[in-house]
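FIELD: query
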Amino acid sequence: MARKDTPPQDRTDGPPDGPRDGELRDELAREGRKLSRSFGWLAALGVLLVLAGVVGLIYTGVATLTSMLLFGWLLLIGGVVGLLHAIESRGSNYFWLAVVVAALNIAAGLVVIRHPEGSAEALTMFAALLFLTGGVFRLVGSVVVRGPQFGWTLLQGAFGLLLGLLVLFDWPDSSRYVLGTFFSLALLFDGLGLIAMGIGGRRIVSMVTPDARPPKSSAGDQE
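FIELD: result
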């Protein structure tokens, strides 16, 4: 039997045409460049934080006063914002509670700004007591429970207890460098995290972003 040749059928569900595909690639490339620049700025911010942390570790006294002033201004601004919010919602049931909390924040912020050294001494004492109580609770809990993380919990408790005793025995002289050291270490590690996030984000964007179309050559160039 002779084989009947069927005429080819038109395919209407093929891939998108060339111009539209190229426009999509160009759009994705532009968005990828924008995202890559954003990650670059994030890494630059991380570098600034790392530099600030290193400077703070060198000049711990200045870092302590700076952290206290920042803390005071945050309390003051937060109190003002809370007071404005309470005035806007003065018909609610928690109006007076919001007013009292805002007034306490404003008063605490003013005290910290006017007396940063005394505030640093008070906060250092509070931090030392936190280290002491946390270390004691971890030591007692690790001995009583004896869970799978017994060694690490015991080590953390001993470290917290030792740190609290060191800060407490050197108080109030320790208030000149303890808070500044913690503040500088926080800036340093936050900066390193931002740098890692920025560099990793740029690499991921470069891996998933398609290349843009090459510019079309003119008729003169083809000749």
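FIELD: remark
Helices lie at 18-58, 60-88, 95-114, 116-145, 150-169, 178-208, 219-222.
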